[in-house]
Design a protein that fits this description.
Layout (H helix, E strand, L loop, with lengths): L4 E4 L2 E11 L8 E3 L8 E3 L4 E4 L5 E8 L5 E3 L16 H17 L19 H14 L7 H6 L3 H13 L12 E5 L2 E5 L3 E3 L2 E3 L6 E6 L4 E7 L3 H16 L2 H4 L2 H17 L1 H12 L3 H20 L9 E2 L9 E9 L2 E5 L5 H14 L3 E5 L6 H13 L6 E3 L4 H10 L5 E5 L2 H15 L2 E5 L4 E5 L5 H13 L9 E7 H17 L18 H17 L2 E4 L14 E4 L6 H4 L6 E7 L4 H9 L3 E2 L1 E5 L3 H10 L4 E4 L14 E2 L2 E2 L4 H6 L2 E9 L1
Parallel strand pairs: 16-17, 16-19, 17-18, 19-20, 21-22, 21-27, 22-25, 24-25, 27-28
Antiparallel strand pairs: 1-2, 2-6, 3-4, 4-5, 5-6, 6-7, 8-9, 10-11, 12-13, 14-15, 15-31, 20-30, 23-24, 26-29
């Protein structure tokens, strides 16, 4: 219960942010005598642990003293709140020098007392800058930030803070990471493998783990912690506290942007390692992982870092009831704790597309990566901590969708859930979010994107882009062209040239720079592709090439082309999510009929058209019922352009300014004057 208190060290101390915990939480710490308690409390890295007379323990996150000052309970002994530190002679000299500086800045104050408050005495933001620089002149080893002054406003607190920094007692705890190291791709990669909760890498409850598999050879990369229900609760609690009580929720948006820029810089510094981890964990070809999986992730964080201080509301004229006057304005506010559940095809990029906008808006995140591709998300967590994002802002929970994803959907403290994955799972998530607490939801779901190729197209470009529309990232691409409609007069020529290009594709190790086509992501998906092609053959479609697993270790599947695909067939209607090109003919001049066939699907994620006729291109793009239409190109997404689907491909947007709205709420304020 917030506001409970006790007398500690002769003064009233009030407790905030309390929760029941396991007694093991208090394993390491410093005892604190509390009159009336059954045993002394313990100040730990997590907070102050109190013990009840029934043997249960309580963790207190924050404590407030009689003078109104609130601190993290974990800093009880280091904050100087229970007793001021004894200063050495040298430190006393420094303190008197700083007293003189305060006196020169606060020249309206007759004498600087220990209790003198810097801001209540009239100091402004320029005075903060001067004070920080004055400290540097007198003690170069004491590197202050402006924020340090705002957090220590009385002279005594300011001096105590400076002395702690001079003594090295105020340094951030070093992030402890139990790496799995591998020498591969001409480098040594260092991979975190535990859950990341409240700024720390920790084991899952009960030490539960699972193996993540390298699709290139089918061998285990390492054991990864498998999150349980209690781990989800801990992560959500950490995110909630970071949002409601921590510095993240109080941070200036421009400072928030600075941290996100720093995170992007660290990702760029580590891009080769990230791309290598992505290649061995997801099967992505290394060069593609470097350019797209990682490269676009970096661009996404930089783009949204720039938005942090440009999120604002508006003033609105309303119908005034005379003689009174009114002012109405809106505020854009962060939602709070957001859950993000991402798929396995672009592990890091899907994280970036959602997390960057979420953080830029000021929210905190609990993210569940796909169970089969957790490693770049955990590496991202390490970089986020090193960038200085406060504890609890980012939490990463590898685990099963049925357990972790479901509990995030049901959790009452999660206020928004962003999901990318199948339509079937998206519907289930939407229902759970509604029943639990009417969470805000955004869904990017399945697709069967049509690509219409007219006879007046640039044939070479249509071949090149048509290949990319299907085989990019091994076909594991949400906007992949699920069905190509080729005008009858150029159909045979198109198919012949496509087969020639397919035969040139090199299938192999994704770390080989000359590889065009790597392994499918995991064994279950490979098996589904084999079954998908068998259905196509059984229904009477013509298998021109491919359709089989490659006979080599790993999860490799041949690039596949089907022709003579009729509208009623399974492969004409259902997504393969693999390297399978589905080609159907349409009669010359039948623009409206091919549009009808292209739109005859419950999906509406992306689409494309190839033609030299600009009028035809505009006519077709207006009538294609999809969230994205590509004209004479394909797969050309950009961080500034909104991305999302229609119909059962979901709703809500990733990327662009519109993505911010998914993680903001609008408050209207009306004032009568």
């Amino acid at each position: 219960m917030p506001g409970a208190w006790a007398e500690v060290d002769g003064q009233k101390v009030t407790f905030y942010g309390s929760s029941l915990v396991d007694n093991s939480t208090a394993a390491n710490g410093k005892p604190l005598d509390i009159p009336g308690a059954s045993q002394p409390g313990i100040v730990t890295k997590a907070g102050l642990v109190l013990f009840g007379n029934n043997g249960k323990a309580l963790l207190v996150r924050n404590v407030q003293f009689e003078d109104g000052k609130m601190i993290p309970a974990a800093q009880y002994y280091s904050s100087g709140s229970s007793a001021a530190m004894e200063l050495t002679e040298e430190e006393k000299t420094f303190a008197e020098q700083m007293r003189a500086v305060w006196q020169s800045i606060l020249n309206n104050v007759s004498k600087i007392e220990d209790s003198t408050d810097f801001f209540k005495s009239g100091a402004a933001s320029m005075d903060v800058v001067r004070l920080v620089e004055e400290v540097k002149l007198r003690a170069s080893s004491c590197q202050l930030q402006n924020e340090d002054v705002y957090m220590n406003t009385t002279f005594q607190d300011f001096i105590q803070m400076c002395v702690r920094k001079l003594r090295g007692e105020d340094e951030e705890e070093e992030l402890v990471v139990d790496y799995v190291e591998k020498s591969i791709n001409n480098m040594t990669i260092k991979m975190p493998h535990q859950l990341f909760i409240n700024g720390e890498f920790v084991d899952a409850e009960g030490g539960k783990t699972y193996k993540t598999i390298n699709p290139t050879d089918g061998m285990a990369i390492c054991d990864v912690s498998l999150a349980q229900i209690s781990d989800v609760d801990k992560a959500v609690a950490a995110a909630k506290e970071a949002f409601e009580e921590g510095e993240w929720g109080k941070m200036n948006p421009r400072d928030r942007g600075r941290l996100i820029y720093k995170l992007a810089d660290l990702m760029e510094e580590n891009q080769e390692e990230l791309a290598t981890i992505e290649a061995i964990d997801s099967g992505a070809v290394y060069t593609l992982a470097l350019k797209t999986h990682v490269g676009m992730s970096i661009q996404t964080f930089r783009y949204f870092a720039g938005w942090c201080d440009k999120i604002h509301g508006s003033t609105i004229p309303i119908n005034q009831a005379r003689p009174n006057r009114n002012l109405t304005f809106t505020k854009k506010e962060p939602i709070g704790v957001c859950a993000i559940v991402i798929p396995w095809n672009y592990p890091l990029m899907m994280l970036a597309w959602k997390t960057a906008a979420c953080l830029a808006a000021g929210n905190t995140v609990v993210l569940k990566p796909a169970q089969v591709t957790p490693l770049t998300a955990l590496k991202f967590a390490e970089l986020a901590a090193k960038a200085g994002l406060p504890k609890g802002v980012v939490n990463i929970l590898p685990g099963s969708g049925a357990l972790v994803g479901q509990h995030l959907s049901d959790h009452p403290d999660v206020r928004k859930l962003g999901f990318t994955g199948s339509t079937e799972i998206g519907k289930h998530i939407m229902k759970s979010c509604a029943v639990s607490n009417v969470k805000k939801v955004s869904l990017e779901l399945g697709g069967k994107s049509p690509l219409i190729i007219f006879s007046d197209c640039d044939m070479d470009k249509a071949i090149r882009m048509g290949m990319s529309s299907v085989f990019f990232n091994k076909g594991e691409n949400c906007i992949a062209a699920g069905r190509l409609f080729v005008e009858n007069s150029i159909h045979d020529q198109f198919v012949k040239k496509v087969i020639g290009e397919v035969k040139k594709m090199k299938i192999g190790d994704p770390l080989d720079r000359s590889t065009d086509h790597g392994p499918q992501n995991h064994k279950a998906h490979l098996d589904k592709l084999v079954e998908y092609c068998q259905i196509g053959i059984k229904e009477g479609a013509t298998l021109v090439c491919g359709g089989k697993q490659v006979q080599r270790p790993g999860f490799f599947f041949e690039p596949t082309v089907f022709t003579d695909v009729q509208d009623h067939m399974y492969i004409a209607k259902e997504e393969s999510f693999g390297p399978v090109m589905i080609i159907s003919k349409f009669e010359s001049g039948e623009v409206d009929d091919v549009l009808r066939r292209a739109n005859a699907t419950e999906y509406g994620l992306a689409s494309g058209v190839f033609t030299r006729d600009i009028s035809k291109a505009l006519y077709v793009s207006e009538r294609l019922n999809a969230g994205t239409v590509f004209v004479n190109t394909y797969n050309k997404t950009d961080v500034a352009s909104p991305f999302g689907g229609f119909k059962q491909s979901g709703f809500g947007k990733d990327l662009g300014q519109e993505a911010l709205n998914e993680y903001l709420k609008t408050k209207a304020v009306t004032i009568e004057y």
